[in-house]
Design a protein that fits this description.
Elements: E1 5-15, E2 19-20, E3 23-24, H1 25-35, E4 40-45, E5 48-49, E6 57-58, E7 69-76, H2 78-91, E8 96-104
Antiparallel strand pairs: 1-7, 1-8, 2-3, 4-7, 5-6
């Protein structure tokens, strides 16, 4: 697969404690991306953040989670990214979904590397 030039980046922001069908929401999104053969998805756990509620969520030294902010970043062609949006509409109850145009400089894909 070759991905170069213009592409779309989708960023999905929500809380670490968010779930879908009893699994972490970030995992459900990554699995759906893989099912749709999207070039890649990365989950980032934030240190602090807030959204529409204006309640600040942050990680604490003595615990693993206090609903820390999470962002899933997805990059692929507009056609493939658009296929993900109906799923996100279904599973993201509270959060932000933002799409932007990006320029892919280099994408290296090793054939047969799926695990």
């Amino acid at each position: 697969m070759k991905l170069a030039g213009k592409a779309k980046m989708l960023r999905i922001y929500f809380g670490e404690d968010d779930k879908w069908k009893d699994k972490p929401l970030y995992r459900a999104i990554v699995e759906k991306c893989r099912e749709l053969d999207i070039a890649g998805a990365t989950v980032l756990r934030g240190i602090a953040g807030y959204g529409a509620s204006t309640l600040i969520h942050r990680t604490h030294v003595l615990s693993f989670s206090h609903d820390a902010p999470v962002m899933v970043s997805v990059v692929d062609s507009e056609e493939k990214v658009q296929k993900l949006i109906p799923f996100l509409d279904q599973v993201v109850d509270q959060g932000l979904i933002a799409m932007s145009e990006v320029e892919v400089i280099k994408y290296v894909h090793q054939a047969g590397a799926r695990s």
